[in-house]
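Reopening this ticket.

The earlier resolution said the output was attached, but the attachment link was broken on my side. Pasting everything inline this time so it's all in one place.
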Amino acid sequence: MTWTKLSDDFPDDCEVLSDAAFRLHVEGLVWSNRKLLNCRIPMGDMRRFAKHPEAVAELLRVGWWETADGDYVIAHHAVYQRDRDAVVRQQAANAKNGAKGGRTAGPPRELPSRTAAPKPSTESIAGSESLNESLNESTSERDRPGLAGTIRTIGNEESQSFPADSLSSDQTGPESSSPPLAPPDVGSRESVQYDTVREGGLVRRVRRAS
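Inline output:
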């Protein structure tokens, strides 16, 4: 990478220029240093970097640029720019010093490298899965066997399921409640009322909200 040097009074000098000419002058200096042209720009290069190439007429008129053998030669502020030989020597020295320190040269300026987003580590994935499992377990159903069916608790709702053929018809009617069977593992409790719901081959008894 090369650099373009502008003195602190550069804007003061440029007060005589239009905005288009000011921009073209700076673009020309930067392009010359980037391509190591020693402030001598081929006229064919103008379309490659200039936003307002027509402003060259103004720079020629005020004497800041000149023409020579099909090139534009930058006169104003050229004295502050390093010449090609000095830049090449510096780049060679930098490369040599970097090699001694184990540093390799980076990609060209025109092709900036793009850093891929880091992949999540295995530990972070496992931790996330563990957290999800814990959350799921806190809201998942708990099954435990009863005397003739299964007591199932989901959230605040507790239901008991039985095979439909294990109950008499009067126990499976849509209005029946208070089933005679109670799971032995729930211990003694106050009187609990159930609603019976038939679902396919099962009869589900849902405890009424107290």
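Reporter confirms the inline version is readable. Confidence is low (pLDDT under 50) at residues 111-117, 138-148, 174-179, 184-188. The longest strand covers residues 157-163.
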